[in-house]
Design the sequence.
């Protein structure tokens, strides 16, 4: 391997290690604070909340989503549920009819205009002091809203985001995401502590209504309006926190094709919004967000890509070598006689040790997320699937997203 | 509850921890690499002693029987040394000074073994089969990798076959002298078998055809396998 290539690997490993250690140390610093948060109860009157549920062709899940909202352990007179049917062409409207009889459910039908237009329409109808959204393929746990409301007792908090877990994973693609979301739970909590949350996800992020009054409504945000609104809030120095013990379940894409489209949209949206909000980068006034979190989020995309491509390249080279061997000398090239174990041929170098350190740290952080979500940190099959499969599938959308951003190609919602 | 401010002290602290992990891994990795180089050197020393011992035996030949010499000399160990050296060269690059130095010692050992075996064969009436193989790994020999596979296969199939591989570009006078004595042109890969030079890729069957005697020295395992 050339000196330049080796040097580059050392640099990216250093950056990756630095960021993960930064996250881990922050977690260790805040462990006690986290415990206190978990035991905190509402001391003031619960605020009124409006939850907007935009839906487009969600006949399969919308019913369950609304039931989970109706089952929230929250005073009914303080909870307004606004459902916006954004021009669905399936039987979503029919399902919604069943919920019309609930006094705190307001149902609206409009022409299809995209998620952000549905959310903005919902904002015009919202009466609550707090306004939130819930994707129509997500389900809230009973106490989630109360746990989120606690955080709003602090007047400086402008938005609170929950912990998201994959709803009933049933195939490998969903198990991979299950582990990935647990990593996300850890990451979101730590980023919350360092004031660096840059996404207010569709599943149950709650805002003070004044946020929209002051900085404006949702925008398309390159098909990632949840990312754009969070970055806009960060630009205005608004505090966004995470209620790690408020859980929301979301239906994860069940097929590789659907996952690819979702992740392509997320990655593309992130890169485009990062460009739009580039003024946040490397500015002292934006603290950890500008100096480390956002730059690392961008760099990580390229680092992941580099790592994965290098790994695939190596596997490809080795395969080609064996194919050439077989073509040259026939199958005896693979006879057991040619194999003999000698520690000498095990590639024990500093890059191996550093990769190992990075790997162990990544698993530790993932398991910490698992502990927050499930109360234990056993290594289960989802973690193994994640470690084995994610590196193989992630390049698909990472490469395409970079290509789309570089060549100004637009990514669509569906 | 949050700490938004730019925290220089924390960044420095994280930097120190990262650096400690980084340099520990660096030193541990280097330690193992050095161990590998030491292992190669140690094998080379052993072979050097073996050759010296054989040369001494040869000098004493007048007073001893041919039976005591012959197979006691290297071959297997030289083969494994070659593999380790090739691996190290692949990892560290063919321009690495340590690799070049090891390769020079290895090539000298090969030449010494080749000469000694020739002398012993003459004296004792042995009839060993030698292949001298000249390659280049500077990107100007697309068939050299495949030729390497063929020779590795032949070495496994015929353990008594003595293969000596030389880097055509190695800046070592002994190798360059061998190249000029055998009149090897830069048309690689090149094989010297029974004083004839064969240029270009030669497959297993081609070489078996060139050296019909190979079938006589096939290992019994291989003979069973082939039948």
Sequence:
């Amino acid at each position: 391997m050339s000196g330049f290539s080796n040097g580059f690997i050392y640099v990216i490993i250093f950056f990756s290690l630095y960021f993960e250690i930064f996250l881990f140390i922050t977690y260790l610093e805040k462990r006690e604070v986290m415990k206190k948060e978990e035991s905190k109860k509402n001391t003031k009157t619960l605020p009124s909340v409006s939850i907007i549920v935009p839906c487009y062709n969600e006949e399969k899940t919308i019913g369950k989503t609304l039931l989970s909202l109706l089952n929230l352990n929250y005073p009914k007179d303080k909870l307004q549920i606004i459902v916006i049917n954004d021009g669905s062409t399936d039987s979503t409207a029919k399902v919604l009819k069943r919920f019309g009889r609930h006094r705190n459910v307001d149902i609206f039908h409009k022409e299809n205009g995209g998620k952000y237009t549905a959310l903005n329409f919902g904002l015009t109808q919202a009466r609550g002091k707090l306004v939130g959204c819930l994707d129509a393929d997500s389900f809230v746990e009973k106490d989630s809203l109360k746990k989120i409301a606690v955080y709003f007792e602090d007047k400086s908090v402008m938005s609170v985001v929950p912990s998201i877990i994959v709803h009933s994973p049933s195939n490998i693609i969903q198990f991979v995401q299950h582990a990935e979301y647990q990593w996300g739970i850890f990451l979101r909590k730590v980023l919350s502590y360092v004031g660096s949350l840059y996404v207010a996800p569709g599943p149950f992020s709650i805002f003070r209504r004044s946020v929209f009054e002051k900085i404006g409504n949702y925008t398309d945000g390159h098909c990632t309006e949840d990312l754009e609104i969070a970055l806009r809030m960060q630009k205005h120095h608004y505090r966004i926190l995470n209620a790690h013990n408020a859980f929301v379940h979301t239906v994860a894409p069940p097929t590789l094709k659907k996952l690819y489209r979702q992740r392509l949209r997320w990655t593309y949206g992130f890169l485009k919004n990062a460009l739009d909000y580039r003024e946040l980068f490397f500015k002292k006034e934006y603290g950890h967000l500008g100096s480390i979190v956002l730059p690392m989020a961008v760099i990580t995309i390229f680092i992941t890509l580099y790592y994965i491509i290098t790994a695939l390249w190596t596997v490809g080279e080795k395969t080609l070598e064996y194919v050439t061997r077989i073509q040259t000398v026939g199958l005896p090239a693979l006879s057991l006689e040619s194999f003999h174990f000698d520690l000498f041929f095990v590639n024990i170098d500093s890059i191996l040790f550093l990769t190992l350190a990075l790997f162990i740290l990544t698993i530790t952080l993932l398991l910490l997320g698992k502990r927050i979500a499930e109360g234990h940190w056993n290594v289960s099959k989802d973690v193994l699937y994640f470690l084995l499969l994610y590196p193989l599938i992630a390049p698909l959308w990472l490469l395409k997203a970079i290509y789309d951003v570089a060549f100004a190609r637009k990514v669509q919602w569906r | 509850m949050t700490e938004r401010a730019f925290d220089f002290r924390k960044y420095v602290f994280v930097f120190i921890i990262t650096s400690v992990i980084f340099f520990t891994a660096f030193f541990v990795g280097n330690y193992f690499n050095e161990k590998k180089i030491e292992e190669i050197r140690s094998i080379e020393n052993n072979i050097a002693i073996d050759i010296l011992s054989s040369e001494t035996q040869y000098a004493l030949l007048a007073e001893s029987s041919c039976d005591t010499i012959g197979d006691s000399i290297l071959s297997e160990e030289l083969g494994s040394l070659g593999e380790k050296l090739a691996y190290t060269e692949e990892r560290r690059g063919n321009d690495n000074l340590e690799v070049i130095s090891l390769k020079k010692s290895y090539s000298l050992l090969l030449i010494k073994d080749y000469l000694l075996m020739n002398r012993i064969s003459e004296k004792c009436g042995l009839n060993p089969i030698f292949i001298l193989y000249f390659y280049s790994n500077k990107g100007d020999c697309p068939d050299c990798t495949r030729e390497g596979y063929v020779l590795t296969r032949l070495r496994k199939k015929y353990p008594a076959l003595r293969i000596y591989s030389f880097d055509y570009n190695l800046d070592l006078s002994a190798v360059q002298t061998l190249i000029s004595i055998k009149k090897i042109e830069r048309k690689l890969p090149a094989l010297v078998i029974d004083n004839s030079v064969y240029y270009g890729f030669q497959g297993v069957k081609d070489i078996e055809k060139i050296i019909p005697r190979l079938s006589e020295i096939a290992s019994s395992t291989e003979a069973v396998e082939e039948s």
